[in-house]
Amino acid sequence: MTPVAKSKPSLQVVGKSRKKVDGPALVTGRGQFTADLELRDLLHAKILSSPHAHARIRDIDSSQAMKLPGVHAVLTWKDLPRKAHTTAGQGAPEPSPYDSFLLDNKVRYVGDRVAVVAAESPDLALKALSLIEVDYEVLPPLFDPGEAMKPGAPVIHDEKEAHAVIPVPYDPNRNLAARASLLVGNVEKGLREADFIFDNIYETQYAAHTSIEPHVALSFLDEHDRLVIRTSTQVPFHVRRIVARILDIPVSRVRVIKPRIGGGFGGKQEVFLEGLCAALTLKTRRPVQIFFTREEEFVSSRTRHPQIIRLRSGVRKNGDITSLDLRVLMNTGAYGSHALTVLCNTGSKTLPLYHCPNVSFNGDTVYTNLPVGGAYRGYGATQGYVATGIQMDEMACAIGMDPVEFYRRNHIRAGETSPVFQALGEGKEGVEMIIGSCGLDECLDRGARAIGWKKKRGRPGKGPVKRGLGMVCLMQGSSIPEIDMGAASIKLNEDGSFNLLVGATDLGTGSDTVLGQIAAEVLAVPLDKIIVYSSDTDMTPFDVGAYASSTTYLSGMAVKKAAEKVKDQILEAAASLLGVSKEKLRLEKGHAVSGRRKASISRIAHYTLYEADQFQVMANASHISHKSPPPFSAHFAEVLVDTLTGKVQVSQYIAAVDCGTAVNPALAEGQTEGAVLNGISYALTEEYIFDSRGRMLNPNFNHYKIFCTRDLPDIKTILVPTHEPTGPYGAKSVSEISINGPIPAISNAICDAVGIRLRRTPFTPDRVLQALENKAL
Amino acid sequence: MELKLFVNDRQKVFTIDPGEHLLDVLRREGYNSVKEGCREGTCGACVVLLDGRPVNSCLVPAARCQGRNVTTAEGLGDPDHLHPLQEAFIESGAVQCGYCTPGMLLSSKALLDDNPDPTDGEIRQALDGNLCRCTGYVKILEAVKKAAEKMRENRK
Amino acid sequence: MVIHRLSIDRYFLPESEREATRLLEQASGRYFPIGGGTGFAFSKPKNLRGIVDLSRAGLDYVKKRKNGIHIGAATPIRTLMDSPALAGYCGGVLPEAALTIATTPLRNMITVGGNAIQVYYWSSLPPLLLALKARFVIAGKKKRTMPAESFYSKQPRRHLDRAEILREILLPPGQKGVAGAFLKFSKTDTDFALVNVAAVIRAEGGICRDASIVLGAVSPLPIRLQKAEKILKGSSLSKEIIEKAAAEGIESVKIMRDFRVSPGYKKKIIPTLVERSLSLASDRCLGDV
Lengths: 777, 156, 289
Fold this sequence. Notes:
The structure holds 3 protein chains of 3 kinds. By secondary structure, chain A is an alpha+beta fold.
């Protein structure tokens, strides 16, 4: 078993909570977000959306709209190339089905796009939308995922072009968008060997990312007639490829730039605005901006895929888990974005956590005429842990074991592997992996102590408000092994500063800073010597983008490798300059040093640029990962349940997280706190309310509730350091894992408080009160 | 129509449409720190101070601001001369994507100008109209407390 | 509802109530008076050509007089939380209710008059003003004062003709032995109410002389629980009596549909919420001797 090593004591920059490199720009309001670029002749685009959940467009007449002064273009499905694609921002060939078109002659959910207008102001564009006449042939809608594959169900993707581009199950005639399965051992046998068997259904609901900055894209033709797209995206390189393909223009003619963006959380790992925006720019030859309204954010962007999960499991009196049988029905809404991969992650990021000889996973993703699922922090694991996290607690309680001890007994450890890793990948086969680092036991110790687990659990108190404690263990992943790639390039300037160019995408997560810290550490300089520039497809090397918790682990390794090459060049030049052999030189505090001989990096830079054997000290490196080392976490929640109203409040929440080395502890804590609070409101108050015709009734912050400062419970993060040998300076990921804890931890805490098991989210007061009444019956 | 007002203590004259909102006028005039997030007064990204009090500029009719004083984040401080709140936000790790940050800073400033030694509850209340999805607010509240302490020290 | 621009030609900032009403009179319905103007986020009047903004018309004040507390209609909600005249009034129920309204920046914009006259079913001030037996002063061609009971007998704006404005709300003078409580039940702190309860109790010598209990968010306009009031009147405000009033008092209340939760759920929790606010009001009241 790999011993848990703490970070090496000699680290100067990595492991420190350095201030964010873009901090001053953001606090003075000077940070340039997409809509902050002022362009002459900018046109504003608005999208006409469907009032019907399922309809064919028999005809569409935009002549009146075109006549409106100030309107420069109106596009419908007749005006655009019909190129089936997926909007999912994934590497090519994408594992999501090609079932979307820029504009189509069919609409598949209330909020689907019908036409787009570019005009001189947003108000004019809206006015023009109202003048477009559409003749719909309304079709029967499908809202219930349980009905989707039954014979006679409306076929949502009946177009001939819909297809999967990799060899995976895809059957749109039965509304099947994706299917995945794995089998290890014999689950029925495992159940027979158990002393206690459990068989439960769990349901998770739609959720919105609610980035405070909505989706926004801006496109224009530069002086060389190249299409420049500035967009609030997590995946600039995928944007370039996809837009070029669907508009039939060469990739070389497209440049994509990600400026500052106002949050993503997975919602911006998607390419659904840029194509339309670019099409309008090509048509009008003018800059065009599309800025989504908050309502469009809720309805017409992307969401978390709702799931219905059946989990059967068996446990022995001694605590051995004998069988885990996870079955998932996932609702992808009207289009299959991330339909296969979120499904797979539901099993691949949960099941390996537990020692169990018999494991089975079966999942189907189906289409419905409802808003579209996409990538959302946690990415299937969030839904999966609702099932396993609650059922683990149930199993522990059934055998009279403390859940903390139950996890200690059953969790995967460093040096171990799970057959699930190989069996369940993301569209192709998974990758076998031996766990290199696992601090879960320390997470359990410190988390339990911090919340007062032994003292407070099982003591609900008197009176109508009862207190309960619950916990859950989690794992996630770090990058998608063998599939995703990130690259970096570094060059040296004459004053000893460096330009670090990375494709990696900072959505506010601070990756520019973290990657800068890694480079600074290798090059033995302070962070402010690294000038970071990211996410520009012309200037920065390739990176798949910010998803799958890969930036620190994958892109960070590319940065480290590039920096090491640059360091080598510097030492080579220093050897020449100082007349010392390279082997005797090292970099320390901004200097190349050997005994008492030393030269500053700026001296060496000057030498290499102007003095002898001149060359540009510069290198680039790429990295693919060969494993996806999981961060681990133990979450503890304390809740107060008002048994007379059903209202649940979280009073305290502890997240103990092993992310390997935290390159920037403050940023790692920030990721944890943000993810936890998002998970808590997802557990308690967030939901999409639909009417009988599939229209969302609460597409605004007034009625879709996320927490404000007054709702914030006492959240504490405990970073538990381990050392992941394959990560830069021992780092793993941290950005997704903690969103998966709150639902199971809170459900388990509610059970501790009032003895009911809630398995359908969100736990709103009316649902909780109903469950209490049902129990009393 | 003509709108004469003070923005960050500077006299300004803008030409506006009578039906416009302050958010759009400010952004058109270059105050890009004022952000659009919902246009319904529910997210707080557009918060500015009107005569020292936080308001949702997306709902404030621009014409109402005749002769009044508007403060935006641009008026708080420059990168070489940061306001203690701006410094504290950076030091505490309270800035992630930064989109809610201008509004948060202004709501915090209004609080501290009125109440230099606020309790935790008072800070939470002052920021209750500024939504953030990135940080979970934890470090934002820490930053405000830290800034309050710094500002009290500076006064001594 | 997203607003871009209001399609109006004129924006007025009258400096007196007379000027305001004169403008409205001249405009024959094409102009609309606003306090904070935040209501446009929910709906816009048709044929709107101009706005008469009351923020500078001298209607932003809180004055304590012998005949009661006068609150100007254009007073922002925030002032209800700051004003010394209101801090101790009736057990502090006004700042308590003010904190349940929206958020800090919105409380700087929403006015007392606006919140009182444009009744959304979740609004906080209407049930409280009804429970406090406030009076509403209307200015225009004929200045008049309406008691809350009449004011809230229909959507209050329908009492006014298009050239009239609400100018002031008059609260009865504070009295010893009179205290109230306001309780909002919602999913999050700044959420719209699922249920509002406003309770004002007058007690003398440990006996309840009068009670005003009003429910909000269960019907389009606030409703008084007269049955519960009767049970409390003349009682010792014991725990048992309060429970009885809360349980029996809502028996005949018809609860409107709310797309967020079922009427059945509201019916289940209302007795608890009424009991909690009555206990609070009664404690404040009996403690105030």
